[in-house]
Amino acid sequence: MTWSAIVGTVAALCTTLAFWPQLLKVRRQGGAGLSWSMLSMYLAGQFLWLVYGLVNDARAVIAANLASIVLVAAIVIMKVRANRRPVRRRLRIAIDMDEVMADALAEHLRRYNAAFGAQLTITDLNGRFLEGYVPAAHREATEALLDASFFRGLAVMADCQDVIRDLAERHDVFVVTAAMDVPVSFEAKYQWLQQHFPFIPPSRFVFCGDKGVIDADYLIDDRSRHFDGFKGRPLLFSAPHNAAETRYPRVGSWAEIRELFAEVDGVHKAGRDARASRWLQPREQ
Hints:
Blueprint (H helix, E strand, L loop, with lengths): L2 H15 L1 H11 L6 H21 L2 H26 L7 E4 L8 H13 L13 H4 L5 H6 L15 H11 L1 E6 L8 H11 L8 E3 L10 E4 L11 E5 L12 E2 L2 H17 L15
Parallel strand pairs: 1-2, 1-4, 2-3, 4-5, 5-6
């Protein structure tokens, strides 16, 4: 082979195989970023080169352009299929911290019993908050137990870390806590979240008062008052104080939340939204 033939062969291989990495990328990610005009003009050019090769009996030109046409045509077909496939939006899930992610009630009871020599249990609080159960003379001191140190050592609810990590891989998870109820808790809550949930970026820690401002598909909270004004789907996390609440769908554990969102994901993936319970579906856009 002459040097010109070698150079021509290498050039033909490079231009022909240049679309192979693009083909693999489109197969994995779809072809939304590829221009229809570019693909159309490239195919037209390859087809004209193929005609040129056939007319002039240039076998190398024929082979190279046939291969290029096959690769680009495959990319076009995958791009068309990707465009027809419905886009599945990531859900936005807002999660309360106290008594949902963090076992604040157990720590509050422990401190109260230690401070007043009492033997209260969680069962005693069925239907009531701790502050509403204790004697009137103890209420102010009971609320004062919620100092900055209170939030640093709270235990994580069972299965909470694993379930939220799994949800965060598929959806947009935000921690939404009413820190305004205890202003000294800001720093301690922030440190607690970074320690136990490092996979959630701090930019998704939301400290607020009125959770009606939260733009999310779901809000998981133990206090029904936070659902007032919320436009998404409420999920009431069971706690002793909300035992009598019947207005909202209820979840009793993080294992149950895992099952619930597995059902939500399965329904959306199969395109069977109409079969899901109405409160399982994401809000309308």
